[in-house]
Amino acid sequence: MIDLRSDTVTRPGTEMRNDARDAAVGDDVYGEDPTVNELEKRAAEVVGKEAAMFVPTGTMGNQAAVRTHTDRGEEVLIERESHVYKWEVAGLAQLSGVQPRTIDGGDRGVITPEAIEDGYVAEDLHRPGTGLLCVENTHNSKGGTAISPERIDAAAETAHDLGFPVHVDGARVMNAAIALDVSPARLVSAADSVMFCLSKGLGAPVGSVLAGSEEFIERARRHRKLFGGGMRQAGIVAAPGLRALDNRNRLAEDHEHARELAAGLDSIPSLSVHEPETNIVLVETEVPAADFLSRAAEVDVLGVPFGEHVVRFCTHLDVSRADVDTAVDRLATELE
Ligand SMILES: *Cc1c(COP(=O)(O)O)cnc(C)c1O
How far apart are CA 119 and CA 77, in angstroms? Predict the structure, then answer.
């Protein structure tokens, strides 16, 4: 089976399993788990923020960030295809009581200063006021587009001038940094907070990180507790996360594999392929996506539907160059 559904399907190898077994642990709700503390310290350094907090999922990291940055009833400016808005069970409404105001980020999911100025609402007797801007990088729904540091800076400058903070949903921000050849810290230097996943391309079995100022993370810890994410001997799952941080540079390999996959699939006449920027390949299919995917599954190649006629394939740690070639060959033969 060549599983290209997501970079979340990777399984921890022997080293990560050994790390989990051997991890020094304590009660993290008391701040006493040395492995979690080490992970939080190193993760904060990687993204250039004062402090970080280990969370079970990216969704919890994003939602704790929104809750910490905003007051009830405020508006959150957010790209309309973004994960926080579309795929987190209306957490904005349910967990923070905020109102999303969506921005169309075009083909690549870029939020411009003009769009922020347009969407901004000043608080008065009738209007709620804008409390936060969320930016997604890489942008999943747009095909893993890597938004440049200059664009993030420009968006953040506009938001800050208007008086509200910026959160980066950086589930795959390490992919963006590698693709753009900048450090993750530089990429999010203008943002007030960033969430990134250890459990995607970096290959950890579980976990994400939310980072920001000391003061922000101290308040976010209360929201993590509120959302049910106060974990005890969490070093068992944080230990593979520490090793996952070292997998950042090898993401370049996933990007290379995505380009190979895209080039291979593009030579199949019934498919039209978007040029990938990172590890995500969007493919437009002549037949309905569901039909294409069931034929692909018959030859042991898996992807996910991303629209009526769009399929997403994702390269990751458990997909080799040979797997990519095999997947292309099998699909070409199946679709002949
Ligand atoms: C996967 C993902 C998340 C959420 O992470 P989970 O760990 O699955 O909750 C958030 N944002 C983006 C862009 C993602 O791709």
Answer: 7
CB-side exposure of 295: number of CA atoms within 13 Å?
15
Cβ atoms of 193 and 216 closer than 8 Å? yes
Tokens of 39: 């992970």
Whether the CB of 175 sits within 6 Å of ligand 1: no
Distance (Å, rounded) from C-alpha 4 to C-alpha 6? 6
- The structure tokens 């893993």 sit at 144
Separation between Cα atoms, residue 194 and residue 237, nearest integer Å: 21
Longest dimension (CA), the chain: 64
Q: Which of 241, 253, 252, 246 is nearest to 323 (CA)?
A: 253
> Is residue 49 within 6 Å of ligand 1 at its C-beta?
no
The two beta strands, 75-79 and 130-136, are: parallel
| Cα–ligand 1 centroid distance for 83 (angstroms) | 7
Q: Is 208 in the pocket of ligand 1 (CB under 6 A)?
A: yes
Phi-psi sector, 87: left (phi>0), alpha (psi -120 to 50), beta:
alpha
Return the residue matching tokens 């999303």. Answer: 100
97-156 per-position pLDDT tens digit: 999 999 999 999 999 999 999 999 999 999 999 999 999 999 999 999 999 999 999 999
